[in-house]
Specification:
The chain has five helices and two strands; from the N terminus they run E-H-H-H-H-H-E. By secondary structure, it is mostly helical. A two-stranded antiparallel sheet has the order 1-2. It starts with 7 loop residues before the first strand and ends with a strand.
């Protein structure tokens, strides 16, 4: 299950704030690259792990200048966003198939093609998906995604000490809430 937690900071100096903004901007570039390369038919059958493995083999990941675990989580999150976007289009395409196709065997075949992401080979489904699946793009350039096992929760009553954070700007007593 995916849970979103927002980190609030207190007593954050301008240097740490600038470093966090730069990291978020770089992760926005990662997210944009995933949307650009895999947010269309070419990425319909790829998982986040396949994309990650390709990027590792082609050394694409090194151009972003961010930590490996964090960019992998950003890729996973972006692929999940693309999948959700595609699922919404599939829902509309299913409704269109229901209205247009009367034969139950043909309808079942088309639904199976939608479910297995082989809709690009069928002219009717391809046309419907192009109509309903508008080309998405990244609009998130202020977000840092981390794995749930790479941060710990603390409050100011705990003393405000953090350790083991994957981001150097997060170490220290300046963060409260979730890291």
């Amino acid at each position: 299950m995916k849970v979103t937690r927002v980190a609030y900071s207190g007593n954050l100096n301008t240097g740490k704030y600038a470093r966090l903004l730069e990291q978020a901007r770089r992760f926005g570039r990662v997210r944009s690259e995933v949307w650009q390369r895999y947010g269309s038919v070419s990425g319909a059958r790829l998982s986040d792990r396949q994309i990650r493995d390709r990027w590792m083999a082609e050394s694409i990941a090194t151009q972003f200048g961010v930590l490996a675990n964090a960019w992998k989580e950003t890729v996973r999150d972006a692929v999940a966003d693309i999948t959700a976007n595609r699922a919404a289009a599939k829902t509309q395409a299913r409704k269109a198939v229901n209205r247009r196709v009367a034969d139950t065997a043909e309808r079942k075949r088309l639904f199976a093609a939608l479910k297995t992401d082989t809709w690009a080979e069928d002219p009717l489904l391809s046309r419907r998906m192009r109509k309903h699946w508008k080309r998405g793009r990244n609009r998130t350039h202020n977000q840092i995604v981390v794995r749930s096992d790479q941060y710990r929760t603390f409050t100011l009553t705990d003393g405000g000490k953090t350790s083991g954070s994957p981001f150097p700007a997060w170490n220290g007593a300046s963060w409260c809430g979730f890291l």
